[in-house]
Specification:
This protein is mainly α and 103 residues long. 83% of the residues lie in helices and 0% in strands.
Amino acid sequence: MLTIISETAAVIYMKLSQGFQNKLNAAIAIMAYVLGFIFLTLALKYLPVGIANAIWAGASTVLVALLGVYLFKEQLTIIQVISLILIVMGLVGLNIEKTSVDS
């Protein structure tokens, strides 16, 4: 979870940095990425690398897209919404498979 939150924060702060014009937001973005890699490295002690990366990338993609709509008033097309739903379905599937294998 911390990896996903860090990645999401990094991307949002990159947007807020306005192409590194806002140095504070750029620095926060860099720090969030560093934290994300630290948390991912720790998570990889317990999770398969492919599954961990898929969950990290997929979940942060969905969160960034939703925050883009909420914070920056970005628009999503119906195809983009459907695609995000498919990502969520894939994440659920990955976690169901992991849970059933662990049992």
